[in-house]
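Predict the 3D structure for this chain.
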Amino acid sequence: MINALSSPDLQQSNRLRLNTLIRLRWLAIFGQSIAVLVVAYWLEFPLPVGLCFALIAGSAWMNLWLAFRYPAAHRLKPLAAMGILTFDSLQLAGLLYMTGGLTNPFSLLMTVPVVISATSLPLRLTAVLGLLVMAVATLLAFFHLPLPWIEGSPLVMPFVYVAGMWMALLSSIAFTAIYAFRVADEARLLANALAATELVLQREQHLSALDGLAAAAAHELGTPLATITLVAKEMEKVLGKDPKFHDDVTLLRTQSERCREILKRLTSLSSEGEPLLTRLPITSLIEEVIAPHRDFGISIKLKPGERIGAEPVGRRNPGVIYGLGNLVENAVDFAHTSVSVSWTWDDASVLLTITDDGAGFPAEVIDRIGEPYMSTRQGAEPGGGLGLGLFIAKTLLERSGASIVFSNSSGPGEGAVVQIKWPRSVFVYADTVAGTSLDAV
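Done. Predicted structure below.
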């Protein structure tokens, strides 16, 4: 069961699928063929049709070979994907060489392989491919056949125009590649962080399910154990006076009775004790969250605030306990001497505030706190990390109905402040409203 909760192969899942490149290349082949036919036979411009279709046929042959050589779901290694994209770039460069170089308006299509690389390949490979395409574009600015035009009146573009096309192409390659890489990278990081969140929830749900499994085991083992106990008593009556078997039979009976007592306790834990264990007052929740962090040299101070009405009692939620524990752990890691936990409630809401006396959150990242793989604090503190823990905590708490605000305190001797607020109707445990209490996670 533990193996089932292991992390997936995220590196494998992020690889580019071969079938995607094959379909994109068929689209390019179709478009290139239409363009050559229109220019050569409809517009009747002079064009090396044979050489152009030779390059297009080479691309089609590559597609067919890849389609028959590998299954449709095959995922390419980064170097293999880069090799295919390099081939596409050179094939397009060959067509542009025979049709006017950078004076050809279709030269902008040279950005496409780089953009595809930016969305799926490592940054270093995308940079190499981008530099290669830029170098090829530079050569095409000086070396190319004339642009297809009306026969007898060749169209000669000014060098300033060609230089402008060259600059526009290089700028498009750089900008679109960087933009595509950033967007794809953020999407990958978010997906990986969500996967980690799901793993945490699966683990907590697995632990919660053990209680139900214990009850089922107690129920299933009850009948055969009762039979064993009955047989042991009968054997004790018959062989109880035999010195060879007396001790063994007595031990068998006593151990079977002990097993019955254990199963009885498991059954009572899963039935009679369940309502008590599932309900958790706010003060008990706070104590359970901070208890593991008391022995790290940082003083944790409890500061109850204004309380209106009865104490809110929520449902024991592994996700909420984990999320609050992560926030307290983060505060302890960055505090100098103390962390304070305060709470208030009224008829409308339940508010929990965690404050440390550390340096606080840097101003430039305070609005981005909670994003995956972004460190929220700077310096050599032992708690510095990638921000994934805060992302998981924020996600779990928000799924329980809470809103979270990260800020810095203006008070003396205080640093970072984290406020977690639930509507009271969401926090309070209600057996009849399953969708609005904390068991929503």
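The longest strand covers residues 299-307.
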